[in-house]
Amino acid sequence: MSSDYDYSDEDGDYYYDEDEDMMSAQEDQDSASSDDDMDMDAFGDDFRVPQRAVRKACEIDHESLPQSAVEKLMSNDIEHISGIFGVDIPKPHYFVFYCATAAQKPKAQPFVCPICFDETQTSFAALACDHTFCSGCWSTYITSKIREEGEHTIRCMAEGCALVIPDPFVRTALADDPQTWERFNELLVRHFVTWNPNLKYCPYPSCTYTVSCPAAASKTALTTIVPTVTCGADASPPHRFCFGCSIESDHRPVICSVARMWLRKCRDDSETANWIKSNTKECSSCQSTIEKNGGCNHMTCKKCKYEFCWVCMGPWSEHGTAWYSCNRYDEKAGVDARDAQSKSRASLERYLHYYNRWANHEQSAKLSVELYAKTEKKMEEMQVTSNLTWIEVQFMKKAVDEVFKCRMTLKWTYAMAYYLDRGNEKELFEDNQRDLEQAVEDLSELLESPIEPDMIPSLRQKVTDKTVYVSKRNEIMLEDTARGFLEDRWRWNVPVDGFD
User: Per residue, what are the HEC states of 418-475?
Assistant: First the structure.
């Protein structure tokens, strides 16, 4: 048997011309290349594979669902359950499996409703339990349960009867009240979302959106990620919250279990009552009482003009140098405190170090509302004193948005730093924290500086550059911390749920 790869010298005149073969191969390659180019040009972007955006470690995949999409998920689950049991279940009440069916049962006269005793009533209805009442009482009862008590699982009116009223019966009773029927459906959706670990309702008032995030549905996953999600509502700022816990805010970079520990500790008045109630501080130079009324930590005493840091009360001149360390707790100072006083006092001082900085950024973030109003006036002033348009002065608002976002990040970094064990990883964490904090304070000072017409172009450039830098520092802080959780780099000084 011969092969396609076998040949013989006797099979005709066979010779091999290397130059001719190379020329032929080059012609074939040029032809193929030309054909490929022609095809690509002809089909345009059809053959170009779009580049997928690389998801950051501090982000998580999630999907925003309107109420209609959630109702569709409910219907799909109902069909699945119906197929398994071979029954027809009329709506999402498969949470409460009932075997009876609803029916309209006209009663022969005379019959008096045992609720209202109105002898003029002629329309009656009963469930499968045969407890009969007039249609008016049924309607009033069901409406009250939905509107006033927020019930989605409504039981029979008869005393001691536990039969659940099915949805078709509710729909008939509310035929003249579509708003209450709509509210009933909303309650059903909320119940479905509550019992589905992959779904969570947006906690913002009056928002009906739901977020689906299967990646954060297990407790194990919450030890390595901070599932911060955003619902699809058209709001400014967007509705951002944590999917994994009840904290209704973005608490990155700290995980849910540590954030809950910190909040419980902050609520312990026995440890912090005398300090939390303090809203003023004394000037380090003249001892005048000072109240903070802005977001910037650069304070100037109106009496003696002494400039200092609101957080550590140190001279502000030292905060511009490379050894800025206001963000880091001085362990040596803690040792000295233990030697001078007691161990419990040193522990309290350590806690207050982190708490005061946590509370300071929270207060500064709240004062951003006033900063927005001040910034808007400055934007209007810029338009009047320069040739900038309203769109061109939006750099000021973007800077305020970035300051607010970064202060929320910094706030939670102190909660995490309090529980981090000493070591190189904590040192690196505090280095990133320090760089972000210093950048935020610099940007805050620029935003609160007075507007001088001649300096507007320079101010615009400085604010824009600093905003970009602050955003980058915030991204580095979040990304490095998130990767630390994924790589199991962080070590805690107390037992934390989910960690050995």
Answer: HHECCCHHHHHHHHHHHHHHHHHHHHHHHHHCCCCHHHHHHHHHHHHHHHHHHHHHHH
